[in-house]
Specification:
single chain; mainly alpha; globular; binds protoporphyrin IX containing FE
Length: 252
Amino acid sequence: MSTSKRHLARQWWVFPLAAATVIFLVTALPRYVGLDPSQSLVPTDRGPVFYPALVTHIFFGSVMLCCGVLQLWPWLRANHPKVHRWTGRTYVVTAIPTGVGALVTSQFPAAGPSQQVGNTFLAALFLLFTVKGYRAARQRRFKDHREWMYRSYAMAFSIVANRFWSTLLIVLYVPEIMTGADIGTENPALAGAAAASSWVSWVVNLLIAEWIIHRKPHRRTESELGQASASRRVERQTPVSSSSGISTLPPS
Ligand code: HEM
């Protein structure tokens, strides 16, 4: 297998990530594009601020999620640094209204204080990680930049993971839902499952991000090592050496 094919094969994880993002957006967005609160998956009778904040959050979040997956793709970073810069800027610009909208909607929880605290922490940490990542890039600390952005994206992707966790927890704690029984939205077990999923969705993602950041670099084959040292001789100024074995080009 040629080296470029081997590199692409090692980036296999981008494709399920992109597929999950597309499936999420295609299934979630149609309910909100018509700006009709009655179509919302979640109840919207939570005061006049809730629905405008929710749709702002969702529209900016959709753009951000697409940019996020492109940012993570090593091939795009290495071969199209301009695209990486622009999708990176769009990610940061859209992250702010997404996070602020999330902070607002979090204060009107349908499933009680545990969900409120879980979502508030998610929104606050997401904003913090994104700002730290942006500042690190501006200060040309590219290793720090990449690490903070991994964390930021882990938080953003929690909405996609939430589809899995909430389904699993509802089936576990409210099994009668499988038989089509009318359990009502006030059901305490349902609220408990929703609250639990609002925590597990981001905590697990953050743990995975920390593992990726701190794991040892993979062992390279001899031919890759030879190639790497040759390209180091050519490119005297490789800006980032990555703990995940991925080198990145600096944003401007
Ligand atoms: C980055 C951190 C995020 C936080 C803290 C967050 C927080 C929230 C909160 C609090 C709600 C209201 C849930 C309720 O009380 O019923 C919500 C709903 C929603 N969010 Fe986010 N969210 C985040 C990221 C995203 C992203 C990136 C998207 C991408 C489109 C997104 C899409 C949605 C959608 C579609 C809903 C409506 C409910 C649903 O269909 O599941 N969120 N979010």
